Amino acid sequence: MQISTDCWRAAKEGDEQDKAAWLEAKRAEEQAESEAWSEQYRMPPLEGTERAVAWGVHCRYQVLAAAYTALVLEGETDEREWEAIEEAARFVTRAGWWIDQRSSGPGDLAELLQAATEADRPTENPHF
Questions:
Q1: CB 3.0–4.6 Å: which of 23, 57, 71, 119 could bond 77 by disulfide?
Q2: How many domains does the chain divide into?
């Protein structure tokens, strides 16, 4: 049985629409999870464009969650040491910084936070 070109195109377009809808729903779910985490752990709002802030919130969540797992749950960092890392993370409010660090190794986080510049920490009070 041969499928006509029109039928094939229609089926393919339907698959692409389904895939796009699934991807959009998945991204919305991940964004909601990131925002809920940020609120739960009292992370301050990020600064940047609307798009950068949304992506930065997601990246910050991923970076900190991966670091906590690697350093505390699986590593030898104690809760007190982690709290210092988490507090330093609150001062980095430039969304672009978190986006730039999204593929960094968990073991590098403390050093990266120390190396963050004043441009990455535009406010002194992380809780506004």
A1: 71
A2: 1
Mean pLDDT of 46-57: 95
Which own/partner pairs from 56-59 qualify as long-range (CB within 8 Å, at least 24 positions apart)?
Answer: 56/94, 56/95, 56/96, 56/97, 56/98, 56/99, 57/31, 57/95, 57/98, 58/30, 58/31, 58/34, 59/98, 59/99, 59/101, 59/102
- What mean pLDDT, rounded, does the chain reach? 87
Q: In this structure, is residue 126 part of a structural domain? A: no
127 found inside a domain? no
Indicate the SS3 state at residue 79: helix
Encoded tokens for 121:
């920490």
Q: Which domain holds residue 37?
A: 5-120
Flag whether 125 is in a domain. Answer: no
What is the per-residue pLDDT across 15-37, written as a single tens digit (0 to 9) for each? 777 888 888 888 888 888 888 88
Q: What is the pLDDT of residue 101?
A: 96
pLDDT digits (tens, 9 = 90+) for 62-106: 999 999 999 999 999 999 999 999 999 999 999 999 999 999 999
